[in-house]
Amino acid sequence: MREDCLFCKIINQQIPTKLIYEDETVIAFNDINPQAPVHALIVPREHIDTINNLENENLAGHMILTAKRLSGVLGIQQSGYRLIMNCNEDGGQTVFHIHLHLLGGKQLGELVQ
Ligand code: 5GP
Ligand code: ZN
């Protein structure tokens, strides 16, 4: 828990946010500024600032498999989806608590800007 971290505040419900999934390791909720009809974020409960400091292979795998399962719940598993993790400035990271974007529900372009 970091006092100044937006996603830690969501995890602690200091910022009330409707969760679409939670377990003991991760939570998931809809992005406030969706870039596609489905745009969810899978966020570990543990505060890790960037992928550069992600070392737990079980956690990395759990985030991806959670996204896969959520794609089924959200109805985009067969139509398809994209998983994105941004890192630091050039990667476009704006919230420094790692998160996996799950995007789908439309044909996505070749690159997300
Ligand atoms: P990043 O650019 O760091 O990869 O992604 C951060 C994402 O968090 C952005 O897509 C942004 O819209 C989303 N976001 C920022 N603040 C909030 C918030 O308070 N609530 C929710 N649900 N999403 C947020
Ligand atoms: Zn945090």
UniProtKB/TrEMBL annotation:
Top-level taxon of the source organism: Bacteria
GO MF terms held by the record: catalytic activity
Record motif Histidine triad motif, residues: 97-101
UniProt-annotated catalytic positions: 99 (tele-amp-histidine intermediate)
Family annotation (InterPro entries): Histidine_triad_CS, Histidine_triad_HIT, HIT-like, HIT-like_sf
Start and end residues of each HIT domain: 6-113
Protein name (record): Histidine triad nucleotide-binding protein
Taxonomic source organism: OM182 bacterium
